[in-house]
Write a structure and sequence with these properties.
- Pfam families: PspA_IM30.
- The chain is rod-shaped.
- It is built from four helices and no strands.
- Among the domains are: 102 residues; 33 residues.
- The longest helix is centred in the N-terminal third of the chain and has 75 residues.
- It is an all-alpha fold.
Length: 204
């Protein structure tokens, strides 16, 4: 209920009370006049109510249409973004197709083959360098091993000289008179065979 409608209905009720008062006093003409005014105020209130209801419907329709318009605007914006994305995707696909179309397959394969040859050459160089390094290491280890053999021989000589007394021969050796000082120790059996060969040589 609007303010003006409320005011008209309040006046209508007031006129009704006046009509009751006038009729109670026996003044029908005054009571009739009060009822006429009451009806006029009531009609005005009804008219205002109808106008208010109509305006409310108009406002409701306007709000509904506004919301519908906003929804359509949002939908149009979404479609626009979708179309924009599709256009960008199509543009990118076109560029890729053009790039692939401009690529020379034979030249690309040739470039890959050259790259493979370079890699194989680098691998061969690395393998050769590794082999040289390995050979160098083997030589160093061989030198160390030979040094170890020399040390073992020196130790063996020390043990032999320490276990043999001065003037004694090692086991399996005997002293044989000889004019050759380079061989102070000679094997008896070997010397005997050698003398036999010398004797036979003189007989012939």
């Amino acid at each position: 209920m609007g303010v003006m409608e409320f005011e008209q209905r309040t006046r209508s009720r007031g006129q009704y009370k006046r009509a009751q008062l006038a009729l109670g006093k026996g003044d029908e003409d005054l009571a009739r006049e009060a009822l006429k005014r009451r009806k006029s105020y009531a009609d005005n209130a009804n008219t205002l109510k109808a106008q208010l209801d109509q305006q409310k419907n108009v406002v409701d329709n306007l709000v509904s249409n506004t919301r519908l318009l906003e929804s359509k605007i949002q939908e149009a914006k979404s479609k626009k973004d979708t179309l924009k994305a599709r256009a960008q995707s199509a543009k990118t696909a076109t560029k890729v197709s053009e790039m692939l179309g401009n690529v020379n397959t034979s030249s690309a394969l040739s470039a890959f083959e050259k790259m493979e040859e370079k890699v194989m050459a680098m691998e061969s160089q690395a393998e050769a360098l590794n082999q040289l390094t390995t050979d160098d290491l083997e030589g160093k280890f061989a030198l160390l091993e030979s040094s170890s053999v020399d040390e073992d021989l020196a130790n063996l000589k020390k043990e032999l000289s320490g276990s043999t007394k001065k003037g004694e021969l090692p086991p399996g050796r005997s002293a044989v008179a000889s004019t050759n000082s380079a061989f102070p120790f000679q094997d008896t059996e070997i010397e005997r065979e050698l003398n036999e060969l010398r004797r036979k040589a003189k007989e012939y």
